[in-house]
Specification:
Keywords: Hydrolase. Pfam families: SpoIIE. This is PP2C family protein-serine/threonine phosphatase. Its EC number is 3.1.3.16. By secondary structure, the chain is α+β, with helices and mostly antiparallel strands. Helices cover 34% and strands 27% of the residues. It has 11 helices and 17 strands. It has a 6-stranded antiparallel sheet, with helices on both faces. A 6-stranded antiparallel sheet has the order 7-8-17-16-13-14. A 5-stranded antiparallel sheet has the order 9-10-11-12-15.
Amino acid sequence: MDRYAAVERELRNAAPHLLLDVVTQALREQYAVQSVELRLADYGMTTLQVVSEAPLAEPVHVHDSPQGRAFGVQEPYVEPRTAPGPLHVHLPVTVRGDRLGVLTVTGPEDGLSRADLAEMQQVCEALGHEILVAERDTDLYLLARRATRLTLAAEMQWQLLPGRSVSRPEFKLGAHLEPAYAIFGDNFDWSVSAHHLTLTVTNGMGTGMEAALLTNLVVSALRNARRAGLGLAGQASLADQAVYAQYRGALHAAVLLLRFDLATGEVEAVDAGSPRMWRQRGRSVESCEFDAQLPLGMFEETEYVTERLRVEPGDRLLIGSDGVYDSASAAGERYGERAIARSLSAHRFLPSEQVPLAVLRDLRDHRGAAPLDDDALVVCLDWFGRQPATGGTSA
């Protein structure tokens, strides 16, 4: 633990672009490793890209590489040795459930103990925290995440997101957007307090920069209202007024707002447009129907009302934008009619952070050769509930 604390202090004091140098030096001194390599997941979550001022190593695929195995199962993976030589260990770099990448260590020939691996995993967690802080001051880690250039609209949308997954004792949540490098109108946002999870899914009208600017306004207005202490209906109303004041009804945004009570599983909902939700309970999958209310910004001073439902431990919720459930196969079948329920059932054993990508892969198979003609957003939430032993404490 003393070794870990020393590395953590050095990481806090390091220049933002030198975090990997600090970790490399510490692991060499304390565990006799030979080399260290950091890779971050790209925006499409398909490759792991090396972090370097002048990257020389090729990207590796998430789904068929040793690094990808550690990233997928979220556990250290020690490559089997077929001959005498250095040991290769891959350790996930994750912060509060948000999977960032993988740290690869070439270790000593005599191996590493379980205690060593556990300590090195703690170092990876500290490194992940410092990467998120460092991104305020350097582009190094953001550049490592892109396998190709982002459109300006996509750049705006990714910078607006809180992350791609989050984990708490009461729930786990994962989300993904496609096309990752050219997204423009879809967005998701969340905030967790001691007592509540607030989750919003937004689908801004229009294309390109027009949609990105609209969605930025909506998400910023919703955050402003939430941070001012307004309830869910008040958040929708304030954002509605902001959008109408800017566009006078010419543009509007569809939003689904959800607020979960972490202690009870009670959920408040405001359905202001097109994002839809499905609930998987056991082997049963059903659509959660709400009273449709007007999208934000369509008319002046629209009033919104909340509805209520309850989630139970073991429930899985899936939210999709219209680019998902309205997407049609060659035969004309909408993905949301039956295929999305089949996809949920097929992937019921996957963790929530992997479900959005799996559902979007199934969507591509459903469409066949036809490319996506709209943004596609999927959010998956697994609900565990608050255990009685911790029910009286603040998280």
